[in-house]
Design goal:
Shape: elongated
Low-confidence stretches: 1-54
Largest sheet: 7 strands, mixed
Number of domains: 2
Strand content: 15-25%
Mean pLDDT: 90
Number of strands: 17
Bound molecules: beta-D-glucopyranose
Helix content: 25-40%
């Protein structure tokens, strides 16, 4: 069975997300059976590592997975289908950006409504928020900015979608990339204003930069003071930096994205909430699509179809879009109500935590890079998860950490692809897939 293609599931997702929240512990492990694995063995020219078989697979034909940053045009968001279908064993693994963005926006709006009696710190009838933007050329970041603006009514249409440009400052509500929104609670109408937003890029060019966000909140709070009622961030790294620098002491709810351990723990101290992008499912999928290709079995094995060890994912935690060759994990909101269930973001997802048998899934060597070794989410959540799954799947992985700024810093370390059986790539810029595929084509 191939993965299912699902396109029109917006509504369902919201419902399913609730189901995930309440049903997590009830998800049973798949039963024995499923596919008989073993299959054909792919191997490499070099037998230095785990691979011990003869035969030669050209680098261009080896399994390849893009993850976390989807090959796409950073201005238009258009998918780079050449990269996504580089060979028949190429996939992308990420999460459903629009569903997650909608959840984040709704989470913030719900919080404002539920806390309307105390939220407006200076009592001027304007709920002011500031927004930390991760990377203006990253479709996930763009989606989150749009999701927040949409839910709060501050978005302005541009070319058919909500404008995601940072506005700088907007104390008087005159910025053109946003508008004042309004929220009505208990018969009273409040204005909602995006007071400021900025891409958090440091002088060396690294985006999603937590330290930059920590500085920005310093500047914003000294200019706007108690006009700031809510702080929103495209991720937890920047969110926590702002929380620690300012909002915690000033009791200003701060919202992020990623459900990193420190952010989830901070909910007990007033952090408003975050979104789990189900990194435990993504990290599994990232390695599983490679494993399946290396084993020569159907890509759905251990994903939508239980493998012989009982690993299987239910369709409330991911979707597969065959046309886009992309797996997307589904997101879950993490708030004061449920954060106790999310305290360890590095724990493998139970339904896919069964060890694969070494005789039918022999050790293979994988090259994998993390585009920015100091990215909070990737280093504190995603990579630890990958490291937990690699043993379960008998993958011997070389983890390469980039500087978050220059693609060549990473591609330089893919000097000998012949040593590896498969590749997992996290790009600095989503436009740059060809810098990697060129190396595999040589
Ligand atoms: C995460 C961010 C991270 C980015 C890196 C996003 O999915 O939410 O925290 O910085 O990926 O590409």
């Amino acid at each position: 069975m191939k993965g299912k293609e699902k396109t029109h599931m917006k509504k369902r997702i919201v419902v399913l997300t609730m189901a995930v929240l309440f049903g997590l512990s009830a998800v049973a492990c798949g039963s024995e059976g499923g596919s008989s694995s073993g299959g054909t063995d792919t191997s490499t020219e070099s037998s230095s590592s785990g691979s011990s078989d003869s035969g030669t697979v050209a680098n261009k034909d080896k399994p390849l997975v893009w993850f976390n940053r989807q090959p796409s045009n950073s201005s238009t968001g258009e998918l780079d289908m050449a990269a996504l279908s580089f060979n028949e064993d190429t996939y992308y693994v990420g999460f459903d950006a629009n569903q997650g963005a909608e959840l984040q926006g709704t989470m913030v709006k719900d919080y404002i409504e539920a806390n309307i009696d105390t939220i407006d710190r200076n009592g001027d009838g304007v709920i002011g928020y500031v927004l930390a933007i991760g990377d203006i050329g990253h479709n996930d970041s763009i989606a989150r900015t749009r999701g927040v603006r949409k839910a709060l009514g501050t978005g302005v249409e541009k070319d058919g979608s909500i404008d995601s440009e940072p506005i700088g400052t907007n104390t008087d509500g005159s910025a053109s990339a946003v508008q004042d929104g309004s929220i009505e609670v208990n018969g009273k109408t409040y204005t909602v204003r995006e007071l400021a937003s900025q891409e958090m890029k440091n002088s060396a060019g690294a985006t999603w930069d937590a330290a930059t966000a920590g500085n920005a909140i310093g500047t914003w709070s000294s200019s706007f003071g108690d006009q700031i009622d809510v702080v929103v961030s495209n991720n937890d790294g920047m969110g926590m930096s702002m929380f620690n620098a300012w909002s915690k002491d000033n009791d200003v709810p701060t919202f992020g994205y990623d459900a990193n351990n420190d952010a989830v723990a901070a909910i007990a101290e007033g952090y408003g909430g975050t979104i789990s992008q189900h990194a435990d499912v993504q990290a599994y999928l990232t390695l599983r699509v490679l494993r399946n290709a290396l084993d020569g079995v159907d890509v759905d094995t251990g994903i939508g179809t239980a493998d012989e060890a009982g690993n299987v994912l239910s369709d409330d935690v991911y979707v597969y879009n065959e046309e886009e060759r992309s797996y997307y994990a589904l997101n879950v909101a993490v708030t004061a109500e449920n954060y106790q269930d999310f305290t360890d973001s590095t724990k493998v997802y139970e339904p896919v935590s069964n060890q694969l048998d070494e005789s039918s899934h022999p050790t293979k060597k994988v090259w994998l890079d993390i585009y920015n070794a100091s990215d909070n989410f990737l280093s504190s959540t995603y990579q630890p998860l990958l490291q937990n799954y690699d043993d379960l799947m008998n993958l011997d992985i070389d983890y390469i950490g980039g500087d978050g700024q220059t693609e060549s810093n990473i591609t330089n370390r893919l000097g000998n692809p012949g040593q590896y059986d498969a590749f997992a790539i996290n790009m600095v810029k989503t436009d740059n897939a060809a810098s990697y595929t060129a190396l595999l084509n040589q």
